[in-house]
Amino acid sequence: MMNAAPLIVLFPLIGFVVLGLFGSKIRNERVIGILGSGSVGASFALAAWIFLSMLGMDAYERKHIVELFTWISAFTGNAGSLSVSVGFQVDQLSILMTLVVTGVGFLIHVYSLGYMHGDPGFWRFFSYMNLFIFAMLNLVLADNFLLMFLGWEGVGLCSYLLIGFWYERKFDVGGYKSGTSTTNDAAKKAFIVNRIGDFGFLLGMFLIFERFGSLNFDTVFGSASVMSPGSDLMTWITILLFIGATGKSAQIPLYVWLPDAMAGPTPVSALIHAATMVTAGVYMVARCSVLYALAPATLTVVAVVGAVTALAAATMGLVQNDIKKVLAYSTVSQLGYMFLAMGVAAFGAGIFHLMTHAFFKGLLFLGSGAVIHAMHDEQDIQKMGGLKKHLPVTYATFLVAAVAISGIPPLAGFFSKDEILWKAFSSDYGSPVLWIVGVLAAACTAFYMFRLVSLTFEGEERFDHQHVHPHEAPGTMTIPLIILAGLSIVGGWIGIPESLLGGNAFEHWLDPVFESANEKLRMTPHEADAVEYVLMTLSVLVAAGAIWGARVLYLKRNEIVANLYRRFAGIHRILFNKYYVDEVYDAAIITPTVRLSESLLWKGIDVRVIDGIVNGSAKIIDVASQWVRKIQTGVAQVYAIVFVGGIFVILMWLLFKQP
Amino acid sequence: MIPDFLLTLTIFFPLLGAIVLLVGISKNEEVIKLVGLTTTLLTFVISLALYAGYDTAATGFQFVQKQVWIEGLSISYFVGIDGMSLLLILLTTFLTPLALLATWNSVRERLKEYVIMILLLEVGMTGVFAALDLFLFYVFWEAMLIPMYFIIGIWGGQERVYAAIKFFLFTLFGSLLMLVAILVLGYFASTTTGGGFTTDLVELYGIAGKIPAGLQLWLFLAFALSFSIKVPLFPLHTWLPDAHVQAPTAGSVILAGVLLKMGTYGFIRFCLPLFPDAAIRLAPYFSVLAVIGIIYGALVAMVQTDVKKLVAYSSVSHLGFVVLGIFSMTEEGMQGAIIQMINHGLSTGALFMIVGMIYDRAHTRQISDFGGVAKVMPVFAAFFMIVTLSSIGLPGLNGFVGEFLILVGTFTSEFLQSYAYAAFAGSGVIFAAVYMLWMYQRVMFGPVREGGLYHGHQLTDLTAREIISLVPIVVFIVWIGVYPSTFLSKSAPLVKEVVQKMEAAKQGIPIRIAETP
Prior knowledge:
By secondary structure, chain A is mostly helical.
């Protein structure tokens, strides 16, 4: 039964191959849609079935590994040499991830049927999406680092293909490059920035192989569980892996690709750049929790990077006018929360937030897609307003998601975010400073979300009524919205903490996975106490206050906003231009590298130095021959003189050789 | 049971086609091309029989044939293959017909001579990979130079004569020193007890441990110079971009696909096992050059304006990986190096075919002349994308398998003893993505050119013939990426043996004398 796990991975692969090879021949959107969504649906059904049967098992029997065949190996049969299989591991963590990937993935596929309707690349879109699901499932189900890396790079590729899906379109990335970019610039940037992270992952893998002699999770984590914390090697391994995570999960300093990635079709943003792929880094850290438990220094780095990213991205989200860009910064910020959780060793809480975030952020993106659809590809929220009466379903579901992400009880986001904030405060690896940063970011989150809701759906209609006639999306699009809205409400209830009289079933389900990490960390257990309730109330009040503030500012007192813009024009410009990080990278790294390669390496060393020497020696031979040629005078007397002279020299040499 | 003479048949079968063309009176272009294609296809089929009859479990050389040639110097026609030669011979016989097919209509002048040259080239290449006598090896090595020289010099582009002479002189310069080294080595054999002058590789393997360290160093360097030029290793690479850009497509495909591998093949076949002490001593230096080549080639590729030149520089980078893998002298590294030779042959061969296909249509290779081609040529775009991804080492495709094994080997090598090699080489993976994807973007994406005209030409998507020439390569790109054991298991025994030799040499244990098969 659990042996069927590889099939979960196989279905989307079949979908990809069939659509990729024959998609252009199948003219019927319905057939393509059934193939494309059906394959993901089948995977979800199988994953759900396996999950249900796992519920009935003993906690320690839930882990199961299926090995298929040897993939990369030296094949010399020596014990110490590399050998990696294609093998899948089902356990409490990977099945959860699989359910999120295939479940949310399936809904987004269905949504895309409506969203991509009529696009000439309809089949191409679905084949890429299937390929993405395949790669993502490899990432979460792999039983070793290398297969995980295959998924890791594979999702990066699909992200690349899908961001640049409308490759002939212009895309405004904003900033100094405004107006000159195409979707493919964004796609390429995503791939390359990710590769920088992957480079870290790769080096981390090498160190792991050198230290543990294997890349299998079981072997590596098994050996790690009997090591003692604090070695430099473990710090290096975990830092390098974390660099990989910052690339994939868009954390400082490698977050720059994600806002640009919004150039892709909106379902792509929902699936890849919100719900699934970008959470891969969080998953990886959780998967390697034992390794991180051995490197407390790295945990601190992870927590700080997470917290700083959460706040910095949230501030950037405050001033964006592109509906999808607001959501993009929001995603970066929420991913920061998840890393904050990882960094304070609240692995379960981080994964919990990962799941609830997949629901409400997926929903927000799909909702924004419905808006963009209704507005004829307009994405500027300054040119929207009052859409709630035109798009009632979209509005209602969007609102649910906005409340959920703002952390208002009893919606999903409250439980997961609050768990993280509490752990950031109370964990042995946390600190009140981290809590404050987290709450500030939460305030920003609530504020920009309701700025977005107010400007988009409420207030006066600022769009051109002549050309734009907003209309509600078709059923294929609204049904996924409604389902995700339901999940955004109830999704948190499986993780209600003990302090609120819940069973925290979610984290207990994951306990066996993080058991050895927690043993290493030896954390002081916390009973529910007054502090927890105070902090919880504070964070809810802050969020509610921010929501109220946003509504007042953007619905009733617009003049204050205008005034603020004027007074803080400098800060606004810095935030709007994302702290000029792109510009710095460009000036400090990209331009110098290109210049150096062109003028010094190619035209300097290659053409001038090396070819100069080669052509120069040819020249010398030429000149020398011209000179030597002069000896060939054709005058016999000269030859005779040289001949006699030669004999004389040889005779002298023979005579004086031996004294 | 596959008879031993099959190897000799594989080597010389293309000669038969060349003779048929030479004496044949048909002037019909199609007939000439069909003779060429049929000959190379049959050669491929014969080489498949070699594959079928190859015993993976056995060590040592197989399909061995030995015939005395020059008695006084005990030089003989001595051929035989192991796993590495087998894979490289298959690569040669596989790529040659595809190269012909992909450029079916590209060459119009002196067609007959062109096909004959390609066939002769194939004889030389297969011979190099099969020769077990150093003198015979040298003969094939030089013989293959001549048709390549003519292919570039006659059917090449504008600057073909400069490129051809540069190619010829670079290579000849190296190989002359190799010839001297071969003679010295043969003479050294005669000074050992009971030995006479010999160029028999298996006998020389036997006395390898007795060569004094000083002499080893000089001999190693003489061989290595010749191989490094061929690879090409930084800074001896500047003949390559010129030769590639000027060569006709089939020439580039074979040059990149097969010829460059002769250098790296030479390192594994001769330099390491014959001069192990020198190899160990010099490994860090060659590894440094390899790493420089990886990064340098990638950076220079990034700023090229000509697609073909870009691919040529990318070869410098990719072959750097192979050299690095070899000098890691670990099982992983050398296995990776061998599979990477095949990978590079497939991917870069395909890239040159692709460049040729688009050049045949637009008569330009300037990146800036293109844009939006994906819209006009969707099938072409798909092939181009797969090959590009293979070239940048995407996991699941062939390039990754080789690069990963090489990097793991380098990282854990006790001969190099530094993480820096792998770390710097690994950064080449980032650069590869940069230059390939940037090139792909500028050529394939963006808006279609006005009126669909590129350099004044309308582009049409791939023909059935072109698709047929690319599909087999793509099949192997995926095959090696997903299930490389088919190929890695073939080269494993050899790699194991070489690594053992190197480790023994490192510990100063005298090397066991290999038995003559």
